[in-house]
Design a protein that fits this description.
72% helix; mainly alpha
């Protein structure tokens, strides 16, 4: 085994361990944090970084074209779907009253929800559109 392969394998192992540690921190955050918004943050940010570190570590170990392409697609779709699904869960929790609004610094959805459904004749902010 040449020196470059040994460095790549060692770096890959370190990245695998770091990725596993970030994923573990995200899982602990999901269990320990008190509300839906905090849990959705713990579900996406450390998990996404941990998953990327694991994928880069595996890529450094495998080093073949088809494997790198597959790992790239896995990373792309995970980064595409994870934050979007977490955002939707947080938005549903807000709409169903699971989020304590007094703890929010900014409440941009309050104006949208109080305006009523689109086409109801009420402009944002509760003013009549006529």
């Amino acid at each position: 085994m040449n020196a470059w392969a040994q460095v790549a394998d060692t770096t890959g192992a370190v990245l695998l361990l770091l990725g596993a540690a970030f994923s573990l921190l995200g899982a602990i955050g999901m269990l320990r944090l008190p509300d839906v918004l905090s849990r959705s943050h713990a579900a996406t940010n450390p998990q996404s970084l941990g998953m990327l570190l694991v994928l880069v570590g595996v890529a450094l170990r495998l080093r073949s074209g088809i494997d790198l392409g597959t790992l790239g697609l896995i990373g792309f779709f995970q980064l595409l779907t994870g934050p979007v699904s977490s955002h939707l869960v947080a938005r549903v929790a807000y709409r169903t009253g699971q989020v304590g609004r007094e703890g929010l610094l900014f409440d941009d959805l309050d104006e949208q929800l109080s305006a009523g459904p689109p086409g109801s004749g009420t402009a944002p902010g509760g003013r009549d559109s006529s």
